[in-house]
Write a structure and sequence with these properties.
With about 375 residues, this protein is α+β, with helices and mostly antiparallel strands. About 50% of the residues lie in helices and about 20% in strands. The protein has two domains: about 270 residues, no CATH class; about 90 residues, no CATH class. The chain has twelve helices and eight strands. Strands 1-2-3-4-5-6 form a six-stranded antiparallel β-sheet. Strands 7-8 form a two-stranded antiparallel ribbon.
Length: about 375
Amino acid sequence: MNKLIFRKLSLDILAFFLLSSLAITMIVCVFQGVNLLDIVSEQGHGIKVYFIYTSLNIPKIFSKLLLFTYFLTLFVILSKYEDNNEILIFWTNGIKKISFINFIGKLSIFFMLLQLLLNLIIVPYTQNLQQQYLKNSSIEFFPKLIEQKKFSSVMKNLTIFVEEYTKEGELVGIYIKEKIDNDENKIITANSGKLFKTESGFSFKLIDGKITNITKSGSFNLGFKETSYELEDLNSKTRKEKKLNETETYFLINCLFKFIDQRKDNKVRCGLNNSFLVKNIYEELFKRAVNPLYIVILSLLSSLIILKSKIIFFSNYYKSFLFLLGFGIIIFSELSYKFLFFSTLIEIVFFFLPVLFILIFYFFILIKTNFKFKYL
């Protein structure tokens, strides 16, 4: 009988968690999706690229919200059980309060492992896959980004200006400036032309114009009656460099171990072309590996709802107090990495602070439930 009761509780928690996390994740995803529309409107990628790119952002959003959604789930479900007196089913079947809380704690370990899996493996992989996909995608809407009588910088190191852009796709009065490197530029002017879609990208067919190469030593002009200007080898505005949150955890750990003594230094760098500050790597690994421990803390905090009758001082605002305390712990967990760069003592304290919180909460629960070791 006890197994059936705990199974129903776990199913209620899981169902509410899935529904709430899915709903909140989708809401955040929609808001972020609006902000990401510039990959179509400004960078020229297609609608398919946009939807795949935003979809690959879902694991990151889900992971970021997991701490809050799990706390919200426990708080709502346990409050419902307590308000509807469903919690009495546990006590009338001989289940001790400490056994109930132990079950909640064990369930929270599953969600903690889930967030560790997301933080350490899935999110960095999908974030990197997201950027690689965007980087390797063709600029399908490139012609739509060229506006007449307006300088268009839709690709990196490339500026295009046209006097007139007809509905038939004809271009009149074309000016193209390509920055080859810091000391060399290429300027192409043409009386008319047209933009064609090719297998590898887009190509300008230019009529009656001039090519000017400008270097430190001078300039060189070359006239033409007809020529093609290929866009396939040029880079779009899409970022090419890998960010810290897109980097594999294993690589970051190796970097940190290599420079463990310089982990707080503001100048030491690691990674491809020394791309990351070791200090930032240290922060990133802390957030990935330590923050999920706060899930256990929040589960113990939520379980205090069943001890309401034993707390007199907060009897009228007990649940509000617990919810605000939990919300404060969530905010604290997100900012705790900021304290790593004070003294070594504070650094050690904040590394073990989640475990300390767990022990304090659990010890408090043991006292309030008049525990006996046989129930642990």
